[in-house]
Design goal:
By secondary structure, the chain is mainly alpha-helical. Among the domains are: 2-91, no CATH class; 190-281, no CATH class. The protein is built from 10 helices and 4 strands. It has helices at residues 27-37, 44-53, 70-80, 84-88, 93-99, 120-126, 187-206, 209-224, 254-263, 268-281; strands at 2-3, 17-18, 105-107, 251-253. The strands form 2 sheets. Strands 1-2 form a two-stranded antiparallel ribbon. Helix 7 crosses helix 9 (254-263) and helix 8 packs across helix 10 (268-281). It starts with a strand and ends with a helix.
Length: 282
């Protein structure tokens, strides 16, 4: 925690106490740590960002933790006095930008379907919410191999930003998220999640719009052939497409693509082989 004193010229341009992103930290955790270090209520930082960026508008805006706007990220980098690249690294913005173009709208998932899940050990040890917590179908902490918690022991669902509540606590009973139960995940579920994460990493590092188009055609082909396994732990939240529209005009969710590849038992080798064949024929 780095304090900024009132005699410092930067005082009026930054927050009183500055924080910097931790390795693999997500933007939501960074915002909560900023609240906590400055002794603010949960959501004070994000409320400041929204009110500053949209100060001339009467329309209510919300902060999109899945794919935040570049305007918000730039302003946050200014207020924390760190490079914009460090803030962007708390999101998947760079990877998604490389994936989406060609007339199709590619999203990680719908922000309205996002449900907060946290690892109690991560919160207790480092007050950190990992970046991959926003990825669909991720239900295990990749560091501690614990089942992620989405509800408090009192029964209330966890919320990221709630007025009059402390950061990293239940807005209903005040329990610190670090005190939530620690449930060890099974080896089978850990293996499944590692497979999911390998697909996400592949898309974020090597994906292209043409590759996504070829994979969507492969998925539809295999589904018509009845190859789907329907793994119970992978729900269908990602199936948000427009069947009556041409493929290049559909809204595509990356969570749907990844879960479909796993359900169809398609390896990265299968994906690349089909993509090379499809691209060569187009």
């Amino acid at each position: 925690m780095q304090p900024i004193y009132i005699t410092d010229p930067a005082w009026r341009k930054t927050f009183p106490h500055l924080v910097a992103p931790l390795p693999d930290e997500g933007i939501s955790g960074l915002l909560l740590r900023c609240d906590e270090f400055n002794h603010w209520e949960s959501g004070a930082t994000v409320a400041h960002l929204i009110s500053t960026v949209y100060q001339s508008s009467s329309r209510p805006y919300r902060f999109n933790v899945i794919e935040p706007s570049l305007v918000h990220l730039k302003y946050l980098s200014q207020m924390l006095a760190i490079p914009i690249s460090s803030i962007v690294a708390t999101t998947y913005r760079s990877g998604m930008k490389a994936l989406g173009s060609g007339g199709q709208l590619l999203l990680i998932q719908l922000s309205s379907s996002f449900r907060l899940s946290i690892c109690p050990s991560c919160v207790e040890e480092a007050r950190i919410l990992m970046r991959n917590l926003i990825l669909p179908h991720i239900t295990i902490c990749s560091l501690h191999h614990l089942t992620l918690q989405s509800a408090c022991q009192c029964g209330a669902l966890l919320r990221l930003f709630t007025r009059k509540a402390l950061p990293f606590t239940c807005y209903t009973c005040g329990l610190d998220w670090g005190k939530l139960p620690r449930i060890q995940a099974s080896l089978e579920r850990i293996a499944l999640q590692q497979q999911l994460l390998s697909y996400y990493e592949f898309f974020f590092s090597k994906g292209t719009p043409k590759l996504i188009s070829s994979i969507l055609r492969l998925i539809e082909k295999r589904e018509r052939e009845g190859c789907r396994r329907d793994i119970p732990s992978l729900d269908e939240d990602g199936r948000y497409r427009y069947a009556d529209k041409p493929l290049h005009l559909r809204k595509i969710l990356l969570g749907y693509v990844v879960s479909s590849l796993v359900n169809l038992n398609l390896s990265l080798a299968d994906v690349m082989s089909y993509a090379e064949h499809w691209l060569a024929s187009t």
